[in-house]
């Protein structure tokens, strides 16, 4: 049950930071960084990552052992850096490998491709990686929280 609660909280933090990420991405992409959508995406993800760290540390994974604060933050941002690459890679492929941008396509195709690659595919790749990595390295289960051996093993021990 704890795992599902953590996953729901992690998902809620993800939804909040998705809104932050999307808002910043489009604010930058449609204004001051219009010729640089990947740069816009990286900046948006970095801001969302900072908010994500604070919310995940204090809410989603607060019952886990973790590490000292500076080690935890270092690991969090290192893993999130890998996440930035995962978030940004589909947009980079869409733009610079598949050339789904103007003048090769229409403005509508460019916008749909940017949203699909940057906000959906990138988000799913980054989120799956971060969920796994945060639980494994940043907020590991506290040894005191590991439960007893499962009931079938206990029953077998009583039978012998």
The shape is elongated
Low-pLDDT segments, ≥5 res: 143-160
Number of helices: 5
Largest sheet data: none
Beta-strand content? under 5%
Strand pairing plus helix content: what structural class? mainly alpha
Radius of gyration: 20 Å
SSE arrangement, N to C: HHHHH
The N- to C-terminal Cα distance equals 31 Å
What's the domain count? 1
Number of strands: 0
> What oligomeric state best describes the polypeptide chains here?
single chain
Q: Which bin fits the share of residues in helices?
A: over 70%
Look at the structure and give the mean pLDDT: 83
Protein name: GtrA family protein
Main location: membrane
Pfam families: GtrA_DPMS_TM (PF04138)
Keywords: Membrane, Transmembrane, Transmembrane helix
Structure report:
- This protein has one domain (2-141).
- The protein has helices at residues 2-29, 37-60, 69-97, 107-138, 151-159.
- The protein is elongated.
- Residues 143-160 have low confidence and may be disordered.
- Helix 2 packs antiparallel against helix 3 (69-97) and helix 3 (69-97) runs antiparallel to helix 4 (107-138).
- 76% of the residues lie in helices and 0% in strands.
Quick overview of this protein structure:
The protein has 160 residues and is an all-alpha fold. It is built from five helices and no strands.
Identify the notable features of this structure and list them briefly:
160 residues; mainly alpha; elongated; disordered C terminus; 76% helix
Question: What's the helix and strand layout?
Answer:
Layout: H1 2-29, H2 37-60, H3 69-97, H4 107-138, H5 151-159
Helix pairs in contact: 1-2, 1-4, 2-3, 3-4
């Amino acid at each position: 049950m704890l795992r599902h609660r953590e996953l729901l909280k992690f998902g809620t933090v993800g939804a909040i930071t998705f809104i932050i990420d999307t808002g910043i991405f489009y604010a930058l992409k449609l204004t001051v960084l219009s010729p640089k959508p990947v740069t816009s995406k990286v900046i948006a993800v970095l801001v969302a990552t900072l908010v994500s760290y604070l919310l995940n540390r204090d809410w989603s994974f607060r019952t886990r052992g973790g590490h000292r604060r500076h080690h935890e933050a270092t690991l969090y941002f290192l893993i999130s850096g890998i996440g930035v690459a995962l978030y940004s890679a589909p947009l980079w492929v869409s733009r610079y490998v598949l050339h789904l941008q103007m003048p090769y396509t229409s403005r509508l195709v460019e916008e749909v491709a940017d949203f699909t690659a940057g906000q959906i595919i990138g988000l799913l790749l980054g989120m799956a990686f971060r969920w796994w990595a945060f639980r494994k390295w940043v907020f590991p289960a506290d040894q005191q929280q590991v439960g007893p051996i499962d009931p079938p093993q206990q029953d077998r021990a009583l039978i012998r």
